[in-house]
Amino acid sequence: MINLKKIIKILKALADESRIRIVALLKERNGLCVCEITEIIGLSQPTISSHLKKLQDAEIITYSKDGLWVNYSLDENMEKEVKKLLGAVVQILSEDERIKSDVSRSFKINREMICKK
User: Do strands 69-74 and 61-66 pair parallel, antiparallel, or not at all (unpaired)?
Assistant: First the structure.
């Protein structure tokens, strides 16, 4: 069962436009690397890494290594209440133009090309 402290930690992690965009993006495209997220969101790599760390600390996202790639995705082991909360937030924002643009761009980028920069 989820407790109040956990909910507050999650809500604080989501209390930022860029982090909500990252969560919405990972809901649609699990397994993105930092350079892909940087390209889509349009912020610097250190800024994206900082946002990813806050989302990890709140146990919203996780990462896995695949050779040279570090892939970020929503944490499949999150509690069902957290999944419901994130699902509701993403659903509410699904018609937001910026979120739709992020998701659309995520399907058009080429990881190998972006990460060579």
Answer: antiparallel
Please check whether residue 41 is in contact with residue 18, taking contact to mean a CB–CB distance below 8 angstroms.
Answer: yes
CA 33 distance to own-chain centroid: 10
For 19-81, the DSSP string reads HHHHHHHHHHS-SB-HHHHHHHHTS-HHHHHHHHHHHHHTTSEEEEEETTEEEEEE-TTS-HH
Q: Which residue has the tokens 């809901």?
A: 27
Q: What pLDDT digit, counting tens, does each position of 48-101 carry?
A: 999 999 999 999 999 999 888 899 999 999 989 889 999 899 899 888 999 999
**Does the domain made of 4-114 have the CATH classification 1.10.3720.10?**
no
So what's the pLDDT on residue 117? 55
User: φ, ψ for residue 14 (rounded to 5)?
Assistant: -85, -5
**The tokens 């350079």 sit on which residue?**
35
The values of phi and psi at residue 88, to 5°, are -65, -45
Question: At 83, which amino acid appears?
Answer: K
